[in-house]
Amino acid sequence: MSALAHYFEEEGLATTAIALVREHAEKIRPPRALWVPFELGRPLGAPDEPEFQKQVLRAALALLESSAGPVVLEDFPDDAPGAKEEDMTGWVCPVSFAPPPAEDQGPVTATLQEIAELSPWYQLSLDRRKRTMVGVSGLEIDDATRYVASFLDETPAENPMPDRPAAFAFKDAFTDILAYYSEAGTAQPGTRSSQEVQDWFWQQTAAGKLMLAVQDAARNSADADLRIFAEKTMLPKTQGG
Amino acid sequence: MARMEDLVESEQAHLRHLPLPSFESTPWVGGPALSERRVAIVTTAGLSLRGEKLFTRGSADYRVIPGDADTGDVLMNHVSVNFDRTGFQDDVNVVYPIERMKEMAAAGEIGSVAGFHYSFMGATDTGEMESSARELAGMLKEDQVNAVILTPV
To answer: Of chain B residues 41-60, which have a CB less than 8 A from chain A?
Structure first.
């Protein structure tokens, strides 16, 4: 991120960067950067906190009026609202799943059943948020699940995204599954940490178990891109990835 | 909580050992007061509009997000799973603060908001992004932009 600032400024455009990893900004030395002590993925601090978000923007934009540079690296002084993990313990997904299907029905059936049970919660999320992050692959969520699950087989299903290499179609379908669960599981307003949502998906859902099995299989794929994805970017580091 | 010590050890190690570019000098472009700035957002969050060409791992190109695009159509297509997405799921402004920028322009805190904003894919070799970034600088200037705010994930 900060490297882009060098290129833009060399082309005559003034920049100010928000930095989530202070150590990186120290090394790359963009002309102006505001380090923020927020969770990775939240450079403006917290969702639905417009005044706080504007405080962050004001601090970053104010660096454009600084005469202290080149290289101004300031620290934003405040933690994000609701960012303290100790304030967020105890979240449980509000969805009470039916008992899982019999073992012999397999993980795909269990996941599809789970997806169906989550459907009203996903709809509630859509109604409340007026938007969804599902839709990267363009597949219906059941089809995205079947496609990802097919990598458990010796010969995966035909790539449903003809313009994308199979490994990226796999990744896009997987991204949609994660988004579907995350949005459905958090459809009700309330306090929860991203870690709790992640733990729920990977440790308590049939889909999480299915994705772990698929990840394991994909590690041995003949497709190098798929192997890299399975090895390096499919499972969060907080889940042992 | 992006203090390094708050991250799990494997993530700390990953971030500490990421190859980073180095620059011999740091350019410094001045400009008018904030109230006269036209500001664009450039993010490395891997954002694209629904139905648009998707990023792949290592993509060095960028996607255009018109300032009047429906935020419901702004999707995240980033390759990494090691950052929070629930914030963006609730509110695009936590990554792409378009509504906040418009409010600040309406209040006179900045001059105006650019007509177009842009997203790169993060976790990409920045050297590979250089030519795209320089090309993009020309497009930003055509939009009369004189300040860019850069947001990571």
So the answer is: 42, 44, 50-51, 53-54, 56-57
